[in-house]
């Protein structure tokens, strides 16, 4: 999370990644989904996968860039309800996660840490989440539930031409199921699951589609999930403390008064309530769970976390949008309006991270050991308005074009505090202090120990154009351009007794501003070898906005007041092919990404405040690799899907040296270091078989194996200095199984996740932040068994 003061001290299941895998009507998951009538398909598409990557409906075979598509039925088949589940289904995608709702998405290894996102998230055609690091956009990616999602499109490589800022690595697009005119349909689900070493959870959800006359339809979906915990909190003596509740819903209204005009209104709400934190205290060398209670010295077993103040992590999503499509004959006019809000409220016990600061200031008699601690409320609030207008030509055999304009205004606020509490008991202590720091040594009363508030505003204006020239039946040439202008303003306010105790003044106000002009482009030729095979190439540029930096009071002249935009140029080539009977398909691509002026975190020692982290720029990094997805259907009802991704993502220059209190500047990363959370290899293989029983019932079984190689963690110069090496996470493998029966209109599924109980990790924290010299480690969920019942009409 973005620090603002010394507070901060211190595919396999891309089943549908090729048209051969796209025969949804015959796949096991689709046939057995519900007894609902099939959704109408656009004329001429013959149930093949349709994507909207280029902001018009196209067959996947005709799109000249790498895309992975995961259908809603496949998500349901895999019990994939969150980012932690989606990530395994897409080659080249990894996830760094501390809590549900606190996630960083990494595509093709494009990641150096920091607080600005490198992957954009869209819901239909509306962007969600902050465009800058001033609101912690990188680690607050929208972790949407998959209920009633038609598909997830993952676009690889920079998407700056059509989607603008922050799509350096790519884009994740959630396509929701639209209301259906003239159809009444619904489904309901209920499930239960148990996690090894933890508790029992349950879930329930429902979807209903109702037409209101011939021209209007309404679709509504709602869900509640109680995910069981498995990490015990020592200090508070709570078992299975890290349970998570997630609940919300969507409502969509479609009004289609004629064949040439349609209006769709959407509203979405989702709340995530994470008790405690999803990380355990680990040995900093082995990353195994600690075996000793850091407060009592008694032995402990399994996953444990030290905390003496109750921790939590809450996240709220709200999104409202309206999409108007008007066919004017010569072109279709589209207006996409969106308003979204994201609220994150996180609280942690950071007493040990601050090295006895609570005792020194608020302890018994001013010096009582282990009598006072510090807890840390950290709130982020993002509000985003977007408006896009597009004019797109009709489908053509010769020339297709699209032009558009885009505007966004985003307001963000980060609010953080240091607050004292009593040990034991966890009772808050009045933070008021009176200090002789006024004129002539007079007393001044401070109601806060430390409070930080960062307000920001981001505005962007952009114009873009995209066109495809069809040179005969076999060759297409697609190109696009985008011009963007953004302007940012920030206001940072600090106050509290810790500032004068550290030699500063309270209150302290710092302001900043920046503006940028950016031009991005793309060129993509595609050649159809036959009706069932095509090859493509793509060269594209993307960018991520820079901005004004957070500057601490008393910062020296060497502290960067502003950081610049970074840019990336991608070179990619790929092939998609399938047999005529669609029994085999392959989707493969190779890529090289040239990343310049990379944005990184910089740390300086500020007199009186200690280590302070902000944003800065490094020089260069690169990512090169290949991704392959193959689909095999040897007999009816039997699908085998395998994917593998190779990613070589590294720094190609040393990062700028930072001050960590050693007397000299230390680079947190060196030329040749792997980029964080960018595994060199990942692979998934999935197999599903469905057959007919007597009486017309359908039975199905399936399984999948997911493999992940070793990963380097965030750049941590302190860890490297103390232990002499870069921190890394061992590779791991997971196995999942599923089986069930479909007796219309009911479906029963039994499933097992992480059958081998792998202890794979998805995040490791900074060195020295946990009690007893431990380090934060966030695991994947242990072995989980569950069952689900569905009913549809």
Q: What is the count of structural domains? A: 1
* Strand count: 46
Termini separation: 45 Å
CATH structural class: Mainly Beta
CATH architecture: Beta Barrel
Radius of gyration: 27 Å
Helical element count? 7
Mean pLDDT: 89
Q: By helix and strand content, what is the structural category?
A: mainly beta
Give unreliable regions as ranges: 1-46
Strand residue content: over 45%
Main beta sheet = 22 strands, antiparallel, barrel
Look up the CATH topology.
Maltoporin, Chain A
How helix-rich are the residues, as a percent range?
under 10%
**What would you call the shape?**
globular
Q: CATH superfamily name?
A: TonB-dependent receptor, beta-barrel domain
Membrane topology: Multi-pass membrane protein
Subcellular location: Cell outer membrane
Organism: Stakelama pacifica
Keywords: Cell outer membrane, Ion transport, Iron, Iron transport, Membrane, Receptor, Signal, TonB box, Transmembrane, Transmembrane beta strand, Transport
């Amino acid at each position: 999370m973005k620090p603002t003061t010394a507070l901060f001290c211190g595919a396999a299941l891309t089943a549908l990644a090729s048209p051969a895998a796209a025969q949804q009507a015959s796949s096991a998951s689709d046939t057995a989904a519900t007894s609902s009538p099939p959704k109408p398909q656009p004329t001429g598409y013959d149930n093949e996968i349709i994507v909207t990557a280029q902001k018009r409906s196209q067959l996947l075979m005709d799109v000249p860039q790498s895309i992975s598509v995961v259908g809603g039925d496949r998500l349901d088949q895999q019990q994939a309800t969150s980012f932690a589940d989606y990530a395994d289904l897409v080659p080249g995608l990894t996830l760094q996660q501390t809590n549900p709702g606190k996630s960083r998405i990494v595509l093709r290894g494009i990641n150096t840490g920091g607080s600005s996102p490198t992957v954009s998230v869209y819901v239909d055609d509306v962007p969600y989440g902050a465009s800058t690091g001033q609101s912690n956009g990188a680690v607050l990616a929208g972790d949407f539930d998959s209920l009633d999602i038609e598909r997830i499109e993952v676009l690889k490589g920079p998407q700056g031409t059509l989607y603008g800022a922050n799509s350096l690595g790519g884009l994740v697009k959630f396509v929701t199921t639209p209301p259906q005119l003239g159809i009444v349909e619904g489904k309901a689900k209920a499930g239960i699951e148990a996690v090894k070493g933890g508790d029992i959870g349950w879930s329930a959800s429902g979807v209903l589609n109702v037409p209101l006359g011939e021209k209007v339809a309404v679709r509504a979906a709602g869900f509640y999930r109680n995910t069981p915990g498995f990490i015990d909190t020592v200090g508070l003596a709570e078992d299975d403390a890290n349970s998570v509740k997630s609940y919300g819903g969507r409502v969509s209204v479609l009004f289609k008064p004629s064949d040439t005009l349609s209006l769709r209104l959407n509203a979405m709400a989702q709340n995530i309530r994470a008790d405690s934190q999803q990380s355990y205290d680990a040995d900093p060398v082995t990353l195994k769970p600690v075996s000793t209670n850091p407060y009592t010295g008694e032995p402990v077993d399994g996953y444990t976390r030290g905390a003496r103040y109750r921790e939590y992590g809450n996240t709220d999503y709200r999104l409202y949008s309206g999409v108007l499509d008007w066919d004017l004959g010569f072109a279709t006019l589209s207006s996409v309006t969106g308003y979204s809000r994201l609220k994150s409220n996180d609280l942690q016990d950071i007493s040990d991270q601050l090295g006895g600061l609570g005792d020194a200031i608020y302890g018994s008699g001013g010096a009582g050991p282990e009598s006072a601690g510090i807890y840390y409320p950290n709130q982020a609030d993002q509000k985003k308005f977007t408006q896009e207008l597009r004019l797109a030509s009709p489908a053509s055999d010769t020339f297709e074009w699209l032009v558009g304009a885009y505007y966004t205004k985003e307001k963000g606020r980060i609010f953080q505090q240091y607050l004292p509490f009593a040990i034991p008991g966890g009772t808050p202590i009045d933070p008021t202090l009176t200090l002789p720091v006024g004129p002539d040594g007079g007393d001044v009363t401070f109601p806060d120990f430390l409070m930080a508030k960062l307000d920001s505003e981001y505005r962007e204006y952009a114009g873009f154009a995209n066109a495809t020239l069809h040179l005969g039946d076999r060759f297409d040439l697609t190109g696009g351009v985008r011009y963007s202008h953004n302007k940012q303003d920030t206001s940072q306010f600090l106050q509290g007794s810790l500032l004068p105790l550290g030699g500063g003044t309270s209150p302290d106000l710092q302001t900043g501003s920046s503006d940028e002009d950016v031009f991005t482009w793309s060129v993509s030729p595609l050649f159809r070898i036959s009706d069932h095979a095509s090859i493509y190439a793509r060269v594209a540029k993307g960018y991520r906005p820079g901005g004004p930096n957070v500057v601490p009071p008393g910062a020296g002249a060497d502290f960067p007041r502003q950081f610049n935009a970074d840019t990336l140029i991608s070179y990619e080539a790929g092939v998609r092919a399938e047999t005529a009977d669609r029994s085999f398909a392959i989707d493969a691509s190779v890529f090289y990404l040239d990343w310049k002026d990379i944005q990184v975190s910089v740390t300086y020692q500020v007199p009186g405040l200690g280590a302070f982290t902000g944003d800065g720029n490094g020089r260069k990094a690169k990512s090169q690799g290949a991704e392959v997805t193959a689909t095999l259907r040897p007999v009816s009802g039997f699908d085998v899907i395998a994917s593998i991704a190779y990613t070589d993502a590294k720094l190609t220059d040393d990062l700028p040296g930072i001050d960590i209190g050693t007397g000299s500047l230390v680079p947190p990363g060196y030329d040749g270091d792997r980029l964080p959370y960018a595994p060199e290899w990942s692979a998934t293989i999935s197999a599903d078989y469905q057959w007919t029983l007597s009486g017309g019932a359908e039975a199905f079984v399936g399984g999948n194996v997911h493999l992940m190689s070793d990963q380097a963690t965030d750049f941590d110069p302190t860890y490297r200095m103390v232990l002499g090496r870069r921190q890394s996470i061992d590779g791991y493998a997971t196995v999942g199984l599923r089986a069930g029966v479909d007796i219309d209109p009911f479906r029963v599924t039994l499933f097992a996740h992480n059958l081998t109980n792998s202890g794979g990790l998805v995040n490791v924290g900074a060195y020295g932040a946990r009690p007893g010299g431990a380090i934060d480690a966030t695991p994947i969920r242990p072995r989980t068994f569950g069952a689900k019942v569905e009913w549809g009409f």
